[in-house]
Amino acid sequence: MHILMYHRLGGLPGPMSIPLITFTAQMRLLAEGPYRALTVADLHQAVRAGHLPGRNAVLITFDDGYLDTITDALPVLDACGLPAAMAVCGGYLSPDTLPRRTPHSSQHFADAAQVLRWRDSGRDVAAHSYTHPALPPLSDAALAWQTAVDHEVLTGVLGEPPALFAYPYGAHDERVREVVARLYPMALATDERHAPNAGRPHVLPRVQVSPHWDLEAFRAALATEADPRTAQHAATQAGHRRIEGP
Ligand SMILES: [Zn+2]
User: Fold this and answer.
1) Cα separation of 67 and 48, whole Å?
2) CATH superfamily for domain 2-244
3) How far is the CA of 245 from the centre of ligand 1 (A)?
4) Which InterPro entries does the protein's record reference (predicted)?
5) Domain map of the chain by residue range?
6) How many whole angstroms from its chain centre is CA 115?
7) DSSP, res 91
């Protein structure tokens, strides 16, 4: 199984933004198969059964709740018939609670109504803390606030609690994992670090899709075993081969 991590679409500067045309080609590839795109319920069922889905299974995720996940990604996902999950911060869902200074370059976040539009399209919503701090340095009280208040807000918006949490910045330690595990049956990490824990339900590793990958590099990332370090490496190698030629 590979869990793909996206942030923004539209080809903005920086490593977090994928051009829409690239994203569209990637989604078409996933829709054509041999891949099987998972819902969060599919993943949860597999976790409960004690074995993660096989190599061709893919979970598509978007972090932070950017508006372009709704305006740009959702029409492509609809056209391709693909499920996906969007990890949102409870504090970003209303202008009244959006922090004045977010750690992000833009304040263009989806509000509660837009997140419901995403959910009502059949896609999943995951939690991503209330205001997106790195969780390990927080006091116990602040950690509880960031996770429990967020859980309450999202449950209120969605009418049911999310089944999935994504650690802000992929940062977690034993204390954070314990607190999150009391609220969510599964949690997403990011790539590279924490690989020894890969596969445990509260340390599910993800592959960050790079704006520099062409379709061959994307395919290479999906062709490897589900170690995200290997996947990133395979994608980079595929990119180099293409640039260097035979
Ligand atoms: Zn984030």
Assistant:
1) 32
2) Glycoside hydrolase/deacetylase (3.20.20.370)
3) 36
4) Glyco_hydro/deAcase_b/a-brl, NODB_dom, Polysacch_Deacetylase
5) 2-244
6) 15
7) G
